[in-house]
Structures are given as structure tokens and as C-alpha cells.
Known about the structure:
Strand order of the largest sheet: 3-2-1-4-5
CATH class of the largest domain: Alpha Beta
Shape: globular
CATH architecture of the largest domain: 2-Layer Sandwich
Number of strands: 23
CATH superfamily of the largest domain: ATP-grasp fold, B domain
Number of helices: 14
Distance between the termini: 46 Å
Strand content: 25-35%
Largest sheet: 5 strands, parallel
CATH topology of the largest domain: D-amino Acid Aminotransferase, Chain A, domain 1
Number of domains: 3
Helix content: 25-40%
Amino acid sequence: MKLLVIGSGGREHALAWKLSQSPRVRQVFVAPGNAGTALEQGIENIGLTAIPDLVSFAQKEDIALTVVGPEAPLAEGIVDIFRSAGLKIFGPTQKGAQLETSKTFSKAFMQRHGIPTAGYASFDQPSDAHDYIDQKEAPIVIKANGLAAGKGVVVAMTSAEAHEAVDTMLVENKLGEAGSQILIEDYLEGEEASFIVMSDGRNILPLATSQDHKRLLDNDQGPNTGGMGAYSPAQIISPTLHAKIMREVIYPAIQGMAHDGEPYTGFLYAGVMITPQKEVKVLEFNCRMGDPETQPIMLRLKSDLSLLLEHAVNGMLDKIEIEWDRRAALGVIMAAGGYPGIPRKQDVITGLTEIMRHQAATDEFHVFHSGTTFGDQSKNEILTAGGRVLCVTALGENIRLAHQRAYEIADKIHFEGCQMRHDIGYRGMDTHDK
């Protein structure tokens, strides 16, 4: 069969790479893909991004199934359009994707269905937002209502930071339409984890747990980013907590969407805060796999992803089980200079050729590309082309060993202005691993 993956980042590289390993899959197309997907055996990039063009391509090439990576096409209604054309696609409808595309929709949904989350208020007038901050005081969280590519959340530890975030979004309009309405949420103490499941509208299949690192710098300092690294499994999610998240968050969300007349199909990502009292609070829902969580999760997945997706689009997730590598996986992001602001581009990446030769012969590690493109073909140049450039991902008997291997590989790759955290996985390194 032939499959199509929509997107151009590290998440899509990891999904396409995993799908291409299936003996059932003849060809994986990625639209538009990146330099990394172009270099993988069995994967081909196509330079299409407009939804009508993607529909035509899927029909012409007899694509058996399409999987959507990023949130933007979901917000545009790609699932509704593909389905109306008789094409199989895995992802939520445009209405279902509101769980991510509108924070106010998501919060109201959680309140309606009894899903635990932080208290909040929404604003579109700066003066009202400033008054609310003065009443509540910091720490406090400011969120853009719409999609802001991972940059719409400010965890303000001081009132001055909170007021500045309000002005950035509502006065200076730096996030555009996404920040024309904001939410101000209560600050939650605890440890975050990523809990991702597949849903066919009725049945739920949980994926391996993971933990992302949002801040740019070591020790969780600096501005929020789209994610500077992730590891799996998340040590904080015990079997008891896993059951609690399924019971209090995932089942109510999937059942709530069905109750509201919009059965949810696709990946559902719950970013959860585990409080010191082991309570669970939902920070956000995303309607797709996380990036960079996908990279370590795919490295640990032993099951055939194409088979899982086929069961999902046919409403049969209750008929399949999922198998994981017992080892831990950890991915570290190598980001461009200037990220998360305006990133440097067109810098030559060195050290990749030798590493890619080695990774072809092993399943122990993989370098997934995010923001990359080709330079001078005669020199086999690969250039930076975005904020997050690469995700170096490795397996290990425990998180410490996965961390060690990933950084050994990352240290052999170089480009001008590279930014990289050196403490990815620190929360998951048990004392006996140190």
C-alpha cells in the first residue's frame, strides 16, 4: 500500500520513518517533508501543501491512508475534505480540532465534562486583563486563544512579566489573530507529562508516556519553545497515575466529544500537570502527536504503525494491541541560533553524513530532521531551514544511558549558532541511574 504523511517537521519524519519499515507499505509520501525524509529509503517528498492538491494527489496515487502531522491542516478542515472525497485519513475533524485550535472552546469543554484543569478567565480587552492580573498576582499563566506554534504560552513568575505578555498579545498584536483573545490561568505547581492516545471515535489505544522540555535553556530557564527535547517513558506516570489519567481525562474527553455530536478520531495529546498531591490537571489538549515526543515514542514502538492506523480509521482499535521496546528513548533538539524568535537559516550542517551511514544499520538511534533543506548538491550539503533543526534520538537500558548515547551523537553534529539543552531527561534519571 501507499501512504501519505502531511507535514514537514521532526514528528512527520519519525512517523514516515516508522511507516516505511512495514512490509505492508510500498511507498510513503511526505508533503512537503524535509531533507531528512528525502534521504530515507522508501520515502518520497512531494512539494504540495494546498489541501485540494493533496486530495488530487491521494486520488491519483491511490493512497490507502493519510496521516496528519501538524495542527494547521487540521484547523483548515483537511479531514472533512478528504473524507468527503472518499479518502481514508487519520485525524480529527475541523470541529474536533477545536480542542486545540481554541483554548476557550477547550476550557469550556473541560468544565462541561468534568475534566480537571486550572481555573481561568478570558479577555480581549487589555485593561480588563491587567486588572485581573492585579487582583490575582503572580505566578500566573497567559495563553493565546489560537494556534501560535508553541509560542502562545507565557508562564509569568512576576506580575511585570504577566503585564508584558498581555501587551505583547493584545496591544502589540505580535501573535496576530491567535492572540486577539487570551486566557489567564491559575498557575499550577507540579511536574508535566505528555499523555497521547489514538482514538477511532469510540475505542482508545494509549501510546507510551513521555515528557517534553519546553524551556530553551538548561534547568528550565529561558523562554518557552515548541520543545527542546523529550524522553519516554515518563517516570512520573506510575501504573496508578496512568489509570487515573485514563479515567479522569481521556475517557471523559472522548466520551464528551461523542456526547456533543462530534466523535473524536485521531491522536489526542493531553498535556497534564501532576501536582505534589498526585492530582492530575489538564494544561492543554493537542489534536495530534507532540513534537518532539513523537521521535522517542516512534523509536520505542515495535508494532506495525500502518496496522495501528488502519484499525483506527476502520473503527477497530479494540481489536489490536500495541507493543513497546522495554528500553527508554530520549531525543535532544538541536535548534538554530535566534530560536524561538527569528531563527538563523541557511547554515551548513556538518557531521551528518557519517552518522546517517551508521543509523541505517541499527535501530538503536536515529537523527530526525525538522528544519532542514538541501544546499549545494555537489557537496551533499544540508542546511538549516527553521527553528528546530534536528532531533537526535537514541535508545538505552535506562534514561541516563539513552541520554548519554543521544548526546554523544549530537556532539558530532555542528552548525553555526546551534542551541541545545544538555539536561534533557533529568527528571527521569532515578538515583540509581546517576
